[in-house]
Amino acid sequence: MPLDELRTLLARHARPDGATAIDGVLISKVERVDPPSASMSGTVFALIAQGAKRLALGDRVYEYRAGQYLVASVDLPVTGHFTEASSRLPALGLGLVLQPAAVAELLLQAAATDLPPVGGTPPLGIAVSDAPGELLDAAIRLLRLLDTPRDVTVLAPLIKREILWRLVSGEQGAAVRQLGLADSSLAHVSRAVHWIRDHYAHSFRVEEVARRSGMSVSAFYRNFQAVTAMSPIQFQKQIRLQEARLLLATHPNDVTGVGRRVGYDSPSQFSREYRRQFGASPSQDASRLRGSAVTVTRNPAPALP
C-alpha cells in the first residue's frame, strides 16, 4: 500500500527540526497531542500519512488525516494542532513549500487545454482534498531520494515539479495556479496580506489597502473575505495578537508596553481580545510562557503536517 511505504520513509527520515536534504521539503513526526497553537500557515502543500490535524482560519475549520492533503496558497494566521498522535502511532507528514515562481514557470509551459477551467469565484486560501494515487506515488519517489543522496541534486527538482503539476491540475488546482499568476485575485489579496503584516501596528483605511492591492473597495473586500475567512481589520487583529504573544515570551513583565507596541492604545481592549484569542489574559499567559509550559517561535508552520 502506498501509505505504508510513505509512513516508513517519513519515520526513517524525520528529524527534530523537520528539515531534509531536499530544499523546501519538510518532514513532521509528532508523538503527542498538544493544545492548539497560533502562527502563520506559509504557502505549502502538506500531506498526512498517519494521524490527523485540525486547523482553524477565521470561522473555518479544516481537518485532514492520512491520505489527505492541505494546500495553503496564501500566508495566513491560523491556529492548529494534531488531534491524533502518540508515541506508538506518531503523526507523520510531508510538507512542500509552494513557490510562486515555480508555479508561474509551470503554467507557461502547460497548454491551456491540459488544465481544468477556473471558476469565477476566488479560490479559498486554504483547502483540503483526498490525495490521488499519482500524487502519493510522486511523494514516495521524492522521499526515496533521501536514501540515495547522490540523486537528490538531479532528480529532486524533477519530482517536485511533478508534484506541483499534480496539484495544479488537481482538485485544488485553481488556488495553486493563482499563486503563480501576478494579476490573479489571489495575488492581489496576497499583496494586501503582506502589506497588513508589515504595518500591523498602525491603523489603516480599507480603501487605502484596496488601492495598494490594485482592486476596487468592493472587489477587494469580497475577495479578501473569501480567501482569508476574515475582514481586513480582523486579519490585522490576528497578526497583532500573534506578535504580542511572541513579544510576551521575551518581555513577560511588560504587558502594557507589549500591547502598545502591537498597536493597542487601550490596555483593557488588548487584555480582552488577547484572552478571547488565547484563553488567558496577557499576564497569565506571560507567566505560562516564562515557566516554559508553552513554546513560542516566530516561524512555526501548523499547516505543515
UniProtKB/TrEMBL annotation:
SMART domains: HTH_ARAC (SM00342)
Nuclease in keyword set: no
SUPFAM superfamilies referenced in this protein's UniProt entry, alphabetically: Homeodomain-like
Boundaries of every HTH araC/xylS-type domain copy: 190-288
Keyword Protease: no
Gene3D superfamilies membership: Homeodomain-like
The entry's keywords: DNA-binding, Transcription, Transcription regulation
Molecular function in Gene Ontology: DNA-binding transcription factor activity; sequence-specific DNA binding
Region (Disordered): 277-305
A Pfam family recorded for this sequence: HTH_18
Protein name: AraC family transcriptional regulator
